[in-house]
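Chain A, query sequence.
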Amino acid sequence: MAPTLPLALLVALLAPGLGVAFPSCDYPPHLWCSSWDIAVACQAENRCANLSRPAAATPVELSLFYESLCPACRWFLIQQLFTAWLLLPREALNITLVPYGNAEEKNVSGKWQFQCQHGQEECLGNMIETCLMHEAKNFTTYFPVIFCLESGSSVTKNLEACLQVYAPQLDGARIAACVQGDMGTELMHRNAQLTQALDPPHQYVPWILINGKHTDELQEQAQTSLVGLICRLYQGEKPDVCGESRAPKAPTGCRR
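Chain A, predicted structure.
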């Protein structure tokens, strides 16, 4: 009597080039290359040369226009935005920060000057965070520092302490030079231009754009449960955190 071949080996012999079926594969070998999902389930991606990979899902784009001392801006950044950034995978959410808010600029003898809703302390805070972003370049590097500044006792006096904890590789002196020099002024002017170009024009801050768009509905959803909103909009494989998400009611924004 001829020896009996194991089923997995028999499948491999009958379907040369495909290999052995895996426990997550419930499909016969002749279907392994019929779709990308089936190829992945059967771990046959490398054997399906004619099967095109699905396009990678693009991250949800969130732009936050804010000012450093606005209570509602600080609440959103600390409670919603930073939490979502920690919980969601990097490929699901891309964040742009524009610290300017309800400030006004004027050109005095060829030099830009700024007036901020919460006084010169806020202008300084906006400038510090803008120069921090310019020096650090990488969002993963500067966002924890901004979180530290916004959640601490003073946005303008805790830079060195926050750098020591979250980004010791950054040079505080370079950031200070930016704040005190022409570079910081030019960066703030750019933030002013970005804010003034908003369509529709912002009426308050925080002013939130989702995929380049602002609506009252998107704003409310972002401030109520940003994780839940991103989970609904992201077209890629949903991360584990995408479940029911509840959050406290957001405070009223800083109107112009």
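The beta strands are 60-66, 93-99, 104-108, 111-115, 204-205, 207-210, 254-255. Confidence is low (pLDDT under 50) at residues 1-21, 244-248.
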